[in-house]
Amino acid sequence: MSSVKNTDTSLLIVGGGIFGAAIAYYFKRDNPNEEVVVYERNELCSGNTSLAAALMSRVRSYGHVIPLSKETYRVLPELEKINGDALDIHYNGALHLASTPENIASLGNMLKLASANGIDWEYITPHQAAEKVPWLSAGAARKIAFIPGEAITDPYLLGMAFANAAKALGVKFIRNTEVIELLKPQQAVIGVQTKNGIHLAKNTVLAAGVWSTNLAYKIGIALPMAPVRSQYWITETFESLFLPTSPTVLIPEANFYSRPQGKSLLFGIREAQSFYADPRELPSDINTFLFSRDKGWHDLEENYKKLLPYFPAFEDIGIKNYVAGFSGYTPDNQFILGEVPGVTGILLATGCVGAGISVAGGVGLGIACLAGKKPNPFDFSPYSYNRFGSIDPYNSDHLATCAAARSNKTSG
Fold first, then answer.
1. pTM for this model (two decimals)
2. Which residue stretches of 266-395 are H helix?
């Protein structure tokens, strides 16, 4: 084992996905003289970040989430300026359809939150919807809301934009180095044990995605989340139906969302019983995990009849790609962010609940402020890790509850 590494590190981040990269960027930007080090077990943003569908929805069912996403939108030109490259962001907008009284009420509440946060929207007709999205048959919907300016992106490129901007400011990224354990001799985390030795730091951020559970549990912190599969498909090219300029489409009655992928369509469904894994069984490289033996065909069949009224051409469209990854889902579909009561030197940034790309800016800024002992501009109170009291993160009932949270999710 090598000797103890630099003890002058102000911030050590475990995890080089989009959360870890964003936190590193903001902290170094605002504390230029402090040393920041990020450990990543594999390559930067190569895990679940790169597998995300990357709907950058600002407008969601919870008002406290919206400012986090707005910060992501705000920081994009800043990243472009530092890196000298334009980001692959498409501001195509989003269509939200609702047919049942319950979903109409939910949509109305979400639009009130949009207005309260200064985000424009309008109700449109089925004909107007079809002009924007040629494959969509919106006649079954009783309400259709269009939110202009909602974006989509390449999640890997956005994650790397944060990482490259952080590197330009002097952040040190240590790749292909696994953090084996958080060091907590008493009631303070003082650094990490890696495969190459000990690295001490004044503050440590745990941003290791679904692998965070195992590292946290070793030091007595039970994270209330589960690795729950998110999956999507990409169709064959169909130029007259799938326009690169079309908005994101969300249809809760069909458990369906979609976004353009060039001249193809990327779409996902939320199955009635979402697949989950025991955190102890996760591989070190998520790309080696077998998410579905049939590439999700069973789940497509489950939702087939619900989708056809809105997407009549669906049965004639070929599928060329299947993509799956794990998101950290909690029982209430809220993140796990912030401090650990009773333990100093540790901050949590995990439990992305399928929205990590959209909120990365807000998470990065908020955690960086906490690490720098500055006021957090965001309300992290809904994201406390112990909001459910005492839990066993490996209990099968708990894991199933977290998976059900994804199945019951209706907003993007």
1. 0.96
2. 297-307, 356-371
